[in-house]
């Protein structure tokens, strides 16, 4: 027990442990556990301790899985919680401090595994082809990427890092979207995104795919050379590079079914050499832009395409242009385009559609799945004989102390002041029922074939155009030149524009704080960025973390207020959004017993009123 | 001066749709796309060339002609070495607006001696048959407004495009030489970059 106590690190929001254990290497009674440890983080951990943790978690994980006939998702060990994934003989565990929301820990592990597969292909084959040392460097790189640079709130939601759209002329977001559209005129270009200094300016890909692509960007930016490093195409100078990446079938179908206007493609790809539709389209795009005013491009406008897409109305790609983060992926999954799939790998059968759907929802269901299966210390006799794993829920769980002290998320539910208002939102209910049962997406990464594809990158100083292209794009010189030359001037210009934007004064602390999370586009809008209040110990951040966890675990929960003696935070959740609001100043008339004069009860109306000007409509 | 490569910034200004982007693309990539987007804000391409023994990198800035993009484009006027005021010979209004473009440039580029600044006038779309602006009218305007060189160009069939940019380079180089010769009587050294020159002269 003292050994384990020593193992457990001090309180931290970050990943404290991560390991990949290959059970196939430890078959016989005499086989040492260390033979199965492919990678262990922190790397400086002594082998004895590595073996202890790997052996315990892998053993318990497999045991519980066999007894319950369902995969273990979360294990708690003292003050850490471990997300668990098992695939074939591989066993992954990622541990964070227990106060990190369960959904966040699971997401982090899934992202990590998916990132690895994206850049290396199947895990088994990677370990057959490469040394453990080589792949260890990659795990370390992906882990550090996933945890780097984000604000505390971004960590809570694990959202995309986007440029501060409040500070950027919306016309520039349109410019970026048009550059991407122009690249798609080449039929070998599937989709792309534009990044500036490691942040998304515009993307045509799903948030998950965009996040993966960003690793290559940041890696190149940091001038870190991979062992099988990116190949550079000399004919275009050092600013163009490419690497092979691997897409799941669902990701590939997502890209192929994205509604690219075929008339928009270069004429050699289409039988009719008629560019007229293109011209019509563009002028319409611009005129809509010109007369709708800049507000329509703010954070608020990004909501409308989603709403439409959720109500099965949006079938045209045009609207995606208007969302800062690009929402083609949101338009599609609910209304797959009937276009024939021309890709050699696509088979387009229904089972894959289903897989796609479930993959798409994996974000939402992960928390539910995790909480359902996760094993609490003491509630399963399995753990009774193993004192190391009998983690009591309540000890020192500081995340909850703001309003109530409780051991796990579930038991907090009854103490949330404004409870579930499950009454009557039929669409919401239906939608959430659809998401059940939890999709097997992450587990399927190895089963479903991974399709190699090329990630092409064109850098102009801090600006990067990243495109997913068919592998033969690189050998198709005319196509490559066309894409390069048709985008170069615009990229130069966009870079000059974005560089000229001053970082913007850190907003004066207003009378309120808010955070608005868009789970479809995986973006966060907040007035908290860059302020000292962004620290993890700030009541707003802690309350948001806790409420986000509640919303993730309790699908019927729509509104909640959480408070301490000094602060009250209101949170509201819908299918596509979560919004958090805290009002400063004014006396909190808080007697400890809820009464109608309690100022906390006015938070919902204040939030509705205040957030309208940020484009957040809670009405 | 003759051995090292200098970077010259030239900027294309003029009404939306007169063909500024097409002129730039024709000159740098020798391609023509009849259905380009409206330019949003600014864009630029570099081109290396040799004029009269001088190696130069021409940085050609293409701008959005529409009024609604004004705030995006004007910050990038500063530092220009030459301005190509462009109109379309089949659009009289674009010709009438030349004066406004010149004024806008001088104001935002913060040109200290507007009468000495090298402007070049381009009448584009020479390939179009229905002209609204005659060569004489255009030449007269150029003469009256500062004796500017005038070129009738067609980005579509590449007429006079390279010639116009080479003339731009010559004008800038000539300015530099004149500046260099002025030094003996002047205690202030004028650098070719107007940005630094501005601080020296004030």
Strand order of the largest sheet of chain B: 2-3-1-4-5-6
Which range does the strand content of chain A fall in? 15-25%
Q: Give the tally of structural domains of chain B.
A: 1
Shape category of chain A? flat
Going across the major beta sheet of chain A, what is the strand order?
A: 7-6-11-10-9-8
Share of residues in helices of chain B? 25-40%
Distance between the termini of chain B: 26 Å
Helices and strands of chain B, in N-to-C order?
EHEEHEHHEHEHH
Instruction: Give the CATH superfamily of chain B.
Output: P-loop containing nucleotide triphosphate hydrolases
The overall average pLDDT of chain B, rounded, is 89
| Number of helical segments with 4 or more residues of chain A | 19
How many strand units of chain A?
A: 16
Task: Describe the fold and architecture.
Chain A: Residues 428-437 have a biased composition (Basic and acidic residues). Chain A: Residues 511-608 form the CCZ1/INTU/HPS4 third Longin domain. Chain A: This is HPS4 biogenesis of lysosomal organelles complex 3 subunit 2. Chain A: GO terms for molecular function: guanyl-nucleotide exchange factor activity; small GTPase binding. Chain A has 619 residues and is α+β, with helices and mostly antiparallel strands. Chain A has helices spanning 2-7, 47-68, 102-120, 123-129, 132-147, 152-157, 170-183, 207-221, 249-257, 276-292, 303-310, 328-331, 350-360, 362-373, 409-412, 426-434, 477-500, 539-553, 603-611; strands spanning 15-22, 37-41, 74-77, 80-87, 90-97, 189-196, 199-203, 231-232, 240-248, 450-460, 463-469, 512-518, 523-526, 559-563, 568-573, 577-583. In chain A, the strands form three sheets. Chain A has a six-stranded antiparallel sheet with strand order 7-6-11-10-9-8, with helices on both faces. In chain A, strands 2-1-5-4-3 form a five-stranded antiparallel sheet. The model of chain A is unreliable at 1-11, 223-234 and 267-446 (pLDDT under 50). Chain B has 202 residues and is of the alpha/beta class. Chain B has one domain (6-181): Rossmann fold (3-Layer(aba) Sandwich). In chain B, 35% of the residues lie in helices and 22% in strands. Chain B is globular, with a radius of gyration of 17 Å. The relative contact order of chain B is 0.18. Classes of the chains: A alpha+beta (619), B alpha/beta (202). Chains A and B meet through helix 7, helix 10 and helix 17 of A and helix 1 and strand 2 of B.
